[in-house]
Design goal:
The protein is mainly β. Helix content is 5%, strand content 50%. The strands form two sheets. Strands 2, 4, 5, 6, 9, 10 and 11 form a seven-stranded mixed sheet that branches. A four-stranded antiparallel sheet has the order 1-3-8-7, with no helix packed on it. The chain is globular and about 45 Å long. The model has no long low-confidence stretch (mean pLDDT 96).
Length: 115
């Protein structure tokens, strides 16, 4: 079955950077390439929100809160999705989840921004 595994989370100081990675398994190249992929986050007591995604046509979306600081990318050959996060703020603290095809979810990776 399809599995998504996130990695790269951790504790970082405000202004710092992190790169999240999401590895997909159990899915072929053609199917994965056709999926929209995205990163969501959920802070304690808040709803899960879309941070960024790439539609298979190559269109990108970023939430206003991360625009200009985060960059999403994908490597279909490796079945990978990345989220480069720069200029991190305390309000970016959350569990970050990878999504593929609006169907499959990873287990999440925690990002904590604190001094």
């Amino acid at each position: 079955q399809v599995q998504l595994v996130e990695s790269g989370g951790g504790l970082v100081q405000p202004g710092g950077s992190l790169r999240l990675s999401c590895t997909a398994s159990g899915i072929g190249f053609t199917t994965f390439s056709g999926y929209a992929v995205g990163w969501y986050r959920q802070a304690p007591g808040k709803q899960r929100e879309l941070v960024a995604n790439i539609i298979n046509s190559g269109s990108y979306y970023y939430s206003d809160s991360v625009k200009g600081r985060f960059a999403i990318s994908r490597d279909n050959a490796k079945r990978m999705v990345y989220l480069q996060m720069n200029s991190l703020k305390a309000e970016d603290t959350a569990a970050y989840y990878c999504n593929a095809g609006n169907i499959f979810w990873g287990q999440g990776t925690q990002v904590t921004v604190s001094s």
